[in-house]
Amino acid sequence: MRKLLVFNQVSLDGYIADSSGDMSWAHKDDPEWREYVANNASGDSHMLFGRVTYEHMASFWPTPQAMHMMPIVAKRMNEATKVVFSRTLERATWQNTRLVKTDLAGTVRELKSQPGPALLLMGSGSIVSQLAQAGLVDDYQVVVNPIVLGGGKSMFAGVTQSFGLRLNDTRRFTNGNVVLSYSLAR
Q1: Counting runs of H as helices and runs of E as strands, what totals does the chain give?
Q2: pLDDT digits (tens, 9 = 90+) for 134-146
Q3: Which residues of 142-166 are buried (b: 16+ CB within 10 A; e: fewer)?
Q4: Domain extent for 156
Q5: Edge-to-edge order in the sheet of strand 139-145
Q6: DSSP element (H, E) containing 177
Q7: What span, in angstroms and rounded, lies between the C-alpha atoms of 4 and 82?
Q8: Which of 86, 103, 127, 153 is an S-S bond match for 51, by CB 3.0 to 4.6 Å?
């Protein structure tokens, strides 16, 4: 069975976006961080997104600017198989993208049961919380950024039952980021 991994950047006070939806605070441009991101992007996975994250990613990664700034990541993002979950999006035009309008949990269960690489969910806080609540997320890779936002969007908004996680790994960066890797404690 394929695993579902969530990768998200969070502020020290636990938000994936500020109260206006801005995530620019999470974008770092230093050699150590760029190397980490490029290495992460070199893995094979199918990507899952909610509408907002999908629109953000689709507006940047296919551009010449993205290819110039981060060619390895841009190539990987553009070539990857992608699924966007949205009830309001009319069509998904980014290459290799399938639009799913209904049955989020059922679709993810089906994807997990199929052969293939891991599933990677980036951003998409409302999707993360729904899939976490359904017990479908296997691993979390959380990048804690050295900033306090004082409010915003939580990755787990709406989760009503607790679940335990097991810490697998940590990594510190000179830019102040700390990556925490967790698995669902079963």
Answers
A1: 6, 10
A2: 999 999 999 999 9
A3: bbbbeeebeebbbbeeeeeeeeeee
A4: 4-184
A5: 97-100, 82-85, 45-50, 118-122, 4-11, 139-145, 178-184, 165-172
A6: none
A7: 13
A8: 86
pLDDT at 42 over 80: no
Number of domains in the chain: 1
The answer to whether residues 58 and 93 touch, using CB atoms and an 8 Å cutoff, is yes
Instruction: For residues 133 and 182, give the distance between their C-alpha atoms in angstroms, rounded to a whole number.
Output: 16
For 57, the token pair is 């990613």
Amino acid at 46: H
CA angle 47, 163, 109 (to 5 degrees): 40
**pLDDT digits over 55-76, tens only?**
999 999 999 999 998 898 899 9
How many angstroms separate the CA atoms of 16 and 50, rounded?
Answer: 14
* Helices marked H in the chain: 31-41, 51-60, 64-69, 71-79, 104-113, 125-133
Q: What is the pTM of this model?
A: 0.91
d(CA 85, CA 158): 18
The domain that contains 155 carries what CATH number? 3.40.430.10
